[in-house]
Amino acid sequence: MGNAKYVWLNQVNLMSWDWLAGYLEHLEELRKRIIYVAATIGVIFAFCIMFELIPVNLFGIQMAYPYPNAFHPVAIQIFEQMRADLVPTMINNVPIQTVVMSPVDAIMVEIKIGLFVAVALGMPVIVYQFGKFIAPALKPTEKRLLVKIALPATLLFITGAIFAYLFVVPFVFSFLYRIASNMVDNLFLNPGEFIDFTLTFLFGFGLAFELPVFMIGLCALGLVKPEFWKNNWRYATVAIFVFGAVITPDGSGVTMFLVAIPMLVLYLAGYGISKYKYGKED
Q1: What is the pLDDT of residue 20?
Q2: Is the pTM of the predicted complex or chain greater than 0.90?
């Protein structure tokens, strides 16, 4: 009896050590992946706030030459381009002036743009490192699904952000400043609020355009049937409008529709593709 108890305790101890060793191994793997991601983001971020891109003509080819300049770095160049692309210089004969309200505003704008660019350009590395970390826990079918949806998900996110940048954000700024121009004699643009407003839209639209991937992925995993999306379209419509209201920072209600309408089209596309690929047995 005593020997049996001793063997049992030994087995429990071995299982505990195995669990602890496995846990520490996972933590070490996670630490390594985080270091790779942080190093990638850090290098790109440092470049964005420390170097300026100067256009040069080399053998008849227009190129951008990086030159150290912390006072007019890439982040500020991007801000200037966004300001020119998205905000009109004048509305109803009222000029829109860019005003810095605090000495730290410009630095915060640089940091936000630098981080956004670093994450955007470093996304392939981020996705790869994330995939490498979770791969051992995935089944072969789940790994294949992850590979299949990685490219469409990336392209849809980029498409959503570009759509917002080219069409939605310029319309929103023009619409809101046109209303304000009837109330005041001077219009101002705060760089920090401008960047927060714009990046929120870009990220929100990029996320919204992921809807078909989410729908198809759930069907591919067998968690829902394609008919689920058809039977619950009313609830989905309400959820889409709520999502549009949450991610739009202006509160006017107009931009909510600018988010919701493309999402409804994407919802129909997600249902159609799910029905075509996974609805044959229904």
Answers
A1: 58
A2: no
